Amino acid sequence: MAKQKETKTNAMRILESLKIPYTHMTYECDEFVDALQIADILSLPYEKVYKTLVTVGSDRGYYVFVIPIARELDLKAAARSVQQKNVEMIHVKDINKVTGYIRGGCTAIGMKKQYVTRIDSTAQQLEKIIVSGGRIGSQLELSPADLARATGAEFASVSTSPSGENASSAHRPLHG
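^ thats the sequence. predicted structure below, dont judge the formating
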């Protein structure tokens, strides 16, 4: 029987064109599941899995933030990191129009346009992080520095714990 060829996502093609190494992981899913559920399905430590959030700034421009799945975007810190008075999350219905991706399959790699992107500084403590592969059922593991190179991103402290603790003061050991 012939081996089934892996279907590459746009994000994977971009990483390959930049000669950036990555590991592709897949999971079965018929509908949207949140990033915490994906980590559970793939038995991944929450600290390594990052979600991609898209915001609109006070200048009406779009800004992308990549943060740990168990943390929340600190809107004030995020706005400061992109020199905006404020940023707010875009509406779910606008994700595809703005990024070219769908909810649950959104990645900072290969969006319709190259938006200003910030990766939470917590990623710099890790050798590898895991982000969406650009479609539901696909995840990519790569180094934070390589993600920054592929997206033109900079690192900034832009997340907070659900209890309000800023990323720069939060440190939890990896488990899993």
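The helical segments are 10-17, 35-41, 75-81, 95-99, 144-151.
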